[in-house]
Amino acid sequence: MADSTYTRRRRGPVTVVLRVLVIAYLFMLVIWPVSLVADRAFRPAGLAEGGFGPFLERLTEPGTVYAFNLTLTVAFWAVLINTVFGVGISLLLVRYRFWGRRTLSVLIDLPLSVSPVVVGLALVLAYSSARGWFGGFLESIGFAVIFSTPGLVMATAFVCLPLVIREIVPVLEEVGTDAEEAARSLGANGRQTFWRITLPAIKWALVYGVVLTAARALGEFGAVKIVSQGAEFNGETATLLVENRYSNFDEASAYAVALVLVLISIIALVVVTYLRPKEDRP
Amino acid sequence: MSSTLSTPSGTPAPSGKGPAKVRRARPKDALTPAAGLGLGVALIWFSLLVLLPLSAVVLTAFDDGWSTFASTLTDRDTRSALLLTVGEAALVTLVNVVVGTVIAWVLVRDQFIGKRLLEVVIDVPFALPTIVAGLVLLSLYGPRSPVSVNVVGTRTGIFLALLFVTLPFIVRTVQPVLQELDADVEEAAASLGASQFTILRRIVLPSLAPAIAAGASLAFARAISEFGSLVLIAGNIPGETEVASLKILKFIEGDNYAAAASVAFLLLLVATVVIAALDVISRRVARRG
């Protein structure tokens, strides 16, 4: 590595100062605050009891259990929908030519640059029974989207939409169609080609995209806040519970749930970091 | 995580496999009936989920022509919310341009124990749910702070939260470019008598400029649309610490959807303009060399 000899020769006082500054900056901005969450979850202030027992109690009381259940349900459906849609649309974008293909691949990225609040607002304006474009129709068939679980799933699917696609498309483009054509010429039908050739080729990219989607789905807050009632036992997801409890001076529960969410996202982060090199390997 | 950010879909990262391999994937098939059906279903879902709701926002903003816009912009609180949002976002982006580049530099060019840990730390703000990010910052800079700082309800608090959530953007876009950068060129310049500062100004920064600008536009777009991490910190004092996204929430809760939609539309507009401007600037810097 030419790089490392280069750095070794250049390592002077400036390098050391920059290193110390960067470590200090990251410590003050990220490391210290994140580690304090654990402290707050186990040693809450005021009348709340500290320790592991009360921490578990806070996580297992019915309101919290309901919130985690709802979050998992919503994340499950959002991940499922986005995986199926993502694989399908990626194959279409990479393997076929059709009118408007370029436009579609640009539009697909749109959800990443829209504010979560605007996502929520957009869904309300389209689907709420009081004022949405399709509100009247939906009400007439007795199907509520806004202020109920389907709305939560849609909001979550919206904000995570490009994550799977962005992972799969580059891999699909790189592997090309040789193996698929060979399989087809040997008599494999479309389904066999997909399950035996295409899917194994994009496997790691797909897993990576799904982990990213799941992490994002479990932690979505802004869009969900707009389309949900957000009351206890009534559309309160884990992230909404963190906000509600903190605002209602139940800091101990807020930090307990926050700690669980922090751990989930750090696990997702580590999984993703270790998956990445595997997929780059030839 | 880096390539999630830097590789836009549709443009594969150049791999070492040569152009022949990439080109062979190009000739695309016309749609088969089954693929056509799949495309139809996918487009219907995409329209229902994304396109129709977003057009509902634009149309609601223009429901009664320009008058909603005019009244939204002349409302003092809304205007100050928009100015505050854009100002804070610009400031945070500026700080990130410097700090993010330095962090990327240290991660690529320096060797020390614990560097791998820092690599993970950089991505933590992305991984955390936004509301949790707010709570995380409150544990150190909120009430009962161990360092006796309370930023709740102040512009410093907003600044801090935005700094937290935008941390990875510039680091993750600059890092791969810096890694690819050939150290030989810098050494050649040094052997020809160029000072460290000249090398930085004439060789390193011009090659990093497009990446810095790309990261900056991502950071700016994120900062003006940020919501979750500000909910608990900003304090929402109208005209004081109320940002645009929280203003939209207030309009929605007050059943004033036209005003909410017009603020949302303005946010989208500002983001588009800034991203386009940064793209132009980065091209000019890169060309000057």
Description:
The complex is a heterodimer of chains A (282) and B (289). Chain A is mainly α. Chain A is built from 13 helices and no strands. The two termini of chain A are 21 Å apart. Chain B has two domains: 30-61; 65-288, MetI-like (MetI-like fold, Orthogonal Bundle), CATH 1.10.3720.10. Chain B contains 13 helices and no strands. In chain B, helix 8 (155-180) packs across helix 10 (196-225), helix 10 packs antiparallel against helix 13 (257-288) and helix 12 runs antiparallel to helix 13 (257-288). The chains are: A mainly alpha (282), B mainly alpha (289).
Label this structure with key terms.
heterodimer, A: 282 residues, mainly alpha, MetI-like fold, 2 domains, B: 289 residues, 13 helices, 75% helix, globular
Short description:
Helices cover 77% and strands 0% of the residues of chain A.
Give the topology, please.
The complex is a heterodimer of chains A (282) and B (289).
Chain A: H1 2-10, H2 13-42, H3 52-60, H4 62-95, H5 101-107, H6 116-127, H7 135-140, H8 149-175, H9 178-185, H10 190-219, H11 222-227, H12 238-247, H13 251-280
Helix pairs in contact in A: 2-13, 3-13, 4-8, 4-10, 4-12, 6-8, 8-10, 9-10, 10-13, 12-13
Chain B: H1 2-6, H2 19-24, H3 33-61, H4 67-74, H5 76-109, H6 115-127, H7 130-141, H8 155-180, H9 183-191, H10 196-225, H11 228-231, H12 244-253, H13 257-288
